[in-house]
Amino acid sequence: MALRQLALGVLAAFWAGAAGAQGKGFLPYEDSGAVARGETLYQEFCASCHGVDLEGETANWRERKDSGRMPAPPHDASGHTWHHPDMVLFRLTKLGVEAVVGQGYESDMPGFGDVLSDAQIIEILAYIKSTWPDDVIGMHNARSGS
C-alpha cells in the first residue's frame, strides 16, 4: 500500500512539477523490499539491453550504432543515468526516450507505461540507484532535489 501511495505521489509531482522537494528525490533506494522487487523486474525487462550487471549494451555506449541510434547506456556509476533527476528517469522509462526528448529523436528505448505500473518503474529505478556508490547517490540526490 505504501508503494501505491508513493506512486500516486509521484504522479501528482509529475503533473505539478514538484518532485524531489525533500532533496532526496522519490526513489525508495533504501527500501530493501522495493530494491529486491526492482532487481527482479530489471532482470526481466531491462537487462537484455542495459546488461545483467547494469553494464550497458556495449563498452562504446557513447558511439552511435550502425542504425544511427545510441546503444543502451550502462546504469552503473560509469554511465550517465545518475546525471538525471528522478522525475526525468521516471518519464524516460514510462514514456520512452523519443517521447521525452522529442524533436524527431530516434531511440531503441520504448516506453514501458503500458507494460509496467508506475510503482514497478519506481522499484526498477530504486534498484539501479541502490547499486551506486555513496558519492554518486549524493550527487544524484542533489540533482533530484528542488
UniProtKB/TrEMBL annotation:
Residues 1-21 form the signal peptide. It comes from the Bacteria. Pfam families: Cytochrom_C (PF00034). SUPFAM superfamilies: Cytochrome c. Residues 33-132 form the Cytochrome c domain. One of its GO terms (molecular function) is heme binding. Keywords: Heme, Iron, Metal-binding, Signal. This is Cytochrome c, mono-and diheme variants. The lineage of its organism: Bacteria, Pseudomonadati, Pseudomonadota, Alphaproteobacteria, Rhodobacterales.
